[in-house]
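S1.2 Input.
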Amino acid sequence: MAFQPPRIVITGIGLTAPNGNSLAEYRQNLLNGVSGVQKMDVRYMGECLAGICDFDALKYQKRKEVRVGTRAGSISIYCAREAVTDSGVDWDNVTKDRVGVYVGTTEHGNVETENEIYAISKFDYDTKFWSHYHNPRTVANNPAGEVSLNLGITGPAYAIGAACAAGNLGLIHATQMLRLGEVDFAICGGVSESIHTFGIFAGFKSQGALATHEDPTKASRPFDQDRNGIVVSEGGALYTLERLEDAQKRGAKIYGEIAGYRVNSDASDYVLPNPTRQAECVRQALTAAGIAPVDIHIVNTHATATPQGDIQECGALREVFGEGCPDTHINNTKSFIGHSMGAAGALELAGNLPSFDDLTVHPSINCDNLDPQCDLPGLVLNKPRKVEKVDAILNNSFGMLGINSTLIVKRFAA
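S1.3 Output.
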């Protein structure tokens, strides 16, 4: 008899996004067309557009902890605490060495190093003014480590570095660890503090890929003929994942079940995506889930509003869902919040999960003049679409150096 891996389900969600600090607020703003993009002063560059979060870091941390730690750490702690509360688990009686923390990140440490260099520049670069907190702030595992410190978790806690595919990878890795029996409860997803480093703004600007618009709320324009680049954003979304039998034993509510996933690599370019490899990733995830393209009801696109990137992804999706999928609806979340890098996949999945209950697909906004090369069957633009059924959601997240990830979540059925 073939081995049947344990079924893994989502039981809690905690998030902060540029347009919401809870799943309910975030979802409502996605349905109402509310953007979270605004103007921001960036060191050395002046005014740029960014997705900025406004959550209460002191809800779960003391002032000294915020001062000693990092922005990514505070985002992670906020999201983790919110997810644990949302899960309804009796946290005081959870065996903490059986909890795993898997936080996807695009990059970490740039913010702290840039800040320290700027600070000592005022003292003729005398390193005696360099913070002794710099090293623990900049290690890659910092966001997960800050969660473990805050929640008293003694199980594995580390970062998943996967560029802008990292949010998906956090959930995928947690699923694998639960199925292997390495942990019994997982806190996972992705976070980003990217707006606090001028380097990422400068890098995208040098590539001609940094979005501009007189109206910040219209700057992120995936699929639009006039799109001109990425809006850099911060944020985070962390989930609690459990084996189905454990969730049912404690009577937990279940948002959805992890149905399948796939991760692959383009091996072709540092930045330019490869639609052939992307299509392969999607197809292989469908195979792993045991479902056909026609069975997917929502596809959340990675599209970042770069001219070539959107076209490449649309080509990959057209190859998989282009014909015979009348009930497949395609949307995009970056049009509301910009590109939250390591948090993107996790936040985008969260924005679509409520569709299992309300049977409504949130749109991609700011598409006033659809690029013909991005025209896809089922594309939902500018206003929500009420649908007859939502049984499976496919979430795409792709990253630099050619990493692709596809995660499929299905409606839970006992």
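S1.4 Remarks. The two ends are 22 Å apart (CA to CA).
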